[in-house]
Automatic annotation (TrEMBL):
Keyword Nucleus annotated: yes
Origin species: Pristionchus entomophagus
Sequence ranges assigned to domain RRM in this UniProt record: 32-110
Classification of source organism: Eukaryota, Metazoa, Ecdysozoa, Nematoda, Chromadorea
Protein name: peptidylprolyl isomerase
EC number(s) from the headed UniProt entry: 5.2.1.8
Catalysis performed (reactions): [protein]-peptidylproline (omega=180) = [protein]-peptidylproline (omega=0)
Pfam families for the chain: RRM_1 (PF00076)
Compartment(s) where it occurs, according to its Swiss-Prot or TrEMBL record: Nucleus
UniProt keyword list: Isomerase, Nucleus, RNA-binding, Rotamase
GO CC, one annotated term: nucleus
Amino acid sequence: QEEMLGNDSRAHAQILEMVGDLQHADEKPKDNVLFVYKLNELTDEEDLGFIFSRFGKIKCCEVIKDRRTNKSLQYAFIEYETTEACERALQKMDNVVIDDRRIRVDFAQSVVEKYTWEK
């Protein structure tokens, strides 16, 4: 049964590779990137980076915005230099209130490296 599940996972990854969602079927998400969601529209990258920087050095912090309106889509990606800093931030910051909104934090599951990280 475990072998069948492994085969199914590989098949799904190969399909995602064929449709262009993955560059390589065996690609894994980075373990030093957080996905922060349920943000207040007013929370910006500078504030979010400042709040999360207490857990370690941040390589990149980006609040994702609508391309046309430039309004926040209320989620962000934060990339730390170390996995340990990322894990500390996840443990301490999940379900806290920032700008009158209770945010959620999880490890990023996306393998897409260029969300718009490098502007």
